[in-house]
Write a structure and sequence with these properties.
- Among the domains are: about 100 residues, no CATH class; about 55 residues, no CATH class.
- The relative contact order is 0.07.
- About 0% of the residues have low confidence.
- A six-stranded antiparallel beta barrel has the order 9-12-11-10-20-21. The protein has a five-stranded antiparallel sheet with strand order 7-6-3-2-8. A four-stranded antiparallel sheet has the order 13-19-15-16, with no helix packed on it.
- The chain contains ten helices and 23 strands.
Amino acid sequence: MPDKKVKISNILGSQIPDFIQADNPLFKEFLSQYYESEEREYGSTYLSDNLSSFKKISTVSDISLVEKQTVNAPNSTTPESPVTLSSLVYAYADVINVNQTTGFPEKYGLLKIDNEIITYTGKTDTSFTGCIRGFSGISEIENANNPEFLTFSNTNASPHDANSLVVNLSFLFVTEFYKKFRKNFLPGLEGKNFSYGLNVENILSRARDFYISKGTDTSLKILFQVLYGEQVDIIKPFEQTIMPSEADWDVTDDIVVEVLSGNPLNLVGFKIYQDSLANPTASGAVSNVSTKFLGNKRYFQISFSKGTIENKFKVSTKTKVTTISTTPDVITVDSTIGFGDVGSFYYLNSNGVYTLAQYTSKSSNQFFGCTSVSRTLIESDPIVDANFVYGYEDNDLTKICTMRVTGTVTGTSDNISSTKYFDLKDLIRVNHLGEKYDINDKKSNTWFYNNISYIDSFEHSANDNTFTTSVDHFLKIGDKVDIIFKETGVPIRQGANVK
């Protein structure tokens, strides 16, 4: 890390008064050495001055290099890439020859050979120069008897044999930052040992991908690679179980979606979210996606992995325009049930893309105070709410797939015991739509109570108040009708009474 700050040790000589230097000739040298030890790379002052940079994952990525130099490789008594002495070192030697100095500070770093701590004033590719032997310093980040205290060791100079291991003590504090990253970005794994040789920067920077795919086969494979360094195959016992045809097995929970943008086929193995990617109201890991057609309309059936659904996916509310709006701020629809009293909806713009619009209030079949509607909506135009489902295609954060739920299939029916068995391609019929109501309730027995219908009439003279319809109209005396010119949609008369 480049250091562009002016160091106190470099300007100390001009700051000490002459009379102090005259009376204490060694005072300046003492302070200079003190500040040099504090301002060295990974020293106390260095750490405090560069604290913000240690928030970057790349700053602590060198820990993997130090690990290879100091931690024994699996099934071995030596590290993968150890730093060792090239020759015998005597107790008075100030140059220490090693096989490599990669990962050590340029000067005033701390190293440990056997039980001796040593600092140095410079280094080459294969040696430490200006070594100060029998140094004192922090050898452990914790004390054996008092974990809240550091272990400060006083050592003496001593000879060391060739091939002795050289330990880098300069990374003790950086290791603590590494532990903090693991606690923040890998909750639940902060106390686990990663697989030997794992690239620290890669696993921390891609932690989001791991938690997005949590509960899927992909996440389990990642977990074993991180902790054990092993490639594994995920075998699910229920996939190998022979299920008798009469058993009440509930293998998957499914939803049927309509695509607004993206390709749901690329969501297999990843998690999807409803309402929001950051704060979803429901989520689940996708195990399979299949294409379904209803006429010429394509839908997708999404199946979830067992036990991965959090909360319940809600079916998106949909209605349609029933009348061409005479004013742009009022839109008449089939029903506003399911939409909020105040809020927003999506409509198809002139390019056939769902676009957001807002409204300030509503009645049972009209939205009032509508804004951001770029075109005149006509009969049968769809209106949907903003209750969408989102997912990352192939786990790529730049490719968001947006969908709306049109139906869900969960669990088994209450009357499963009386349900007849069916074979493939058997015909089924719907007994009734929704719950049963009192047959005398007008909401159930009168079609015109909740719906606007259009009926064509034959030609008639301008002053004639009698209309002949092309089909049975089922109108009753007292009903109100609007007379509309079919070719233009312009009302000729509104609120006319049937007599």
